[in-house]
Amino acid sequence: MADLLIDLFNAYYSARSNKRNTYNALKFEQYYEHNLIELYDEIINRSYEPRPSICFIVNKPVKREVFAASFRDRIIHHLIFNYIAPVFEKRFINDSYSCRKGKGTHYGIQRVNHFIRSCSENYHNDCYILKMDIQGYFMSIDQSLLYEKVKQSVVVNSGKINGDIETILYLIGKTIFNDPKNGCIIKSKTSEWKGLPPSKSLFYAKKNKGLPIGNLTSQLFANFYLDEFDHFMKELFF
């Protein structure tokens, strides 16, 4: 398990890269070696429990409900991400853009432009765009189904993952099935939820449904959850 401690340190450095000036990151960093060893012991002893999240509303680019995990839990998210993202990335279709390295807005625009030019023969013919959306996607994700899909993929690809599979699945389960509403600290005023559809709030999600917007793992899991659908649509139209 010595490798796990090294992996935890690497996950810590990843987690603090954009959060180093935040209060929670600075507090953790003050005794970061002790805190990381403590986190390591909790994982080994299977006593790790996510800490309360901070909940707030953001309005740009669109109104969203965000649950910001504690810094120590962000380290766990980066740890999970570092283990499984390389395997998942090889599975994703090229035109899946959400929160992927090198797959930002500009790349998406370039791809749309390419497809329009190709379909229209450089704007000489009519072409059509199918615009679809899944209502309240993050809040409707079935946690049990997601975990089983992730578990199956991790087990099948265990030879390609540099970590203890049992430990990785333990942390994935703790993250997926954690309810960030429990004990959360609400930073926004109640009035700021006005105008946010219930389908976009975890406070209205059904039991064992939904992932918090704001977690690194939520973005990865959301991409993975509909990966089969992405492949189906690509093969259907291309």
Could you explain the architecture of this structure?
With 238 residues, the chain is mainly alpha-helical. The protein has one domain (2-237). It has helices at 2-16, 23-30, 32-44, 71-91, 105-119, 137-140, 143-156, 165-176, 216-225, 227-237, and strands at residues 54-58, 64-68, 185-186. Strand 1 (54-58) and strand 2 form a beta hairpin. The chain starts with a helix and ends with a helix. The mean pLDDT is 93.
Largest sheet: 3 strands, mixed
Count of discrete alpha- or pi-helical segments spanning 4 or more residues: 10
Compute the separation of the termini in Å: 46 Å
Given the C-alpha coordinates, what overall shape results?
globular
Number of E-state strands: 3
What's the gyration radius in Å? 20 Å
When the domains are counted, the total is 1
Strand content: 5-15%
Secondary structure class reads mainly alpha
Mean pLDDT over the full residue set: 93
Order of strands, main sheet, comes to 2-1-3
Unreliable residue stretches: none
| H/E topology pattern | HHHEEHHHHHEHH
Report helical residue fraction: 40-55%
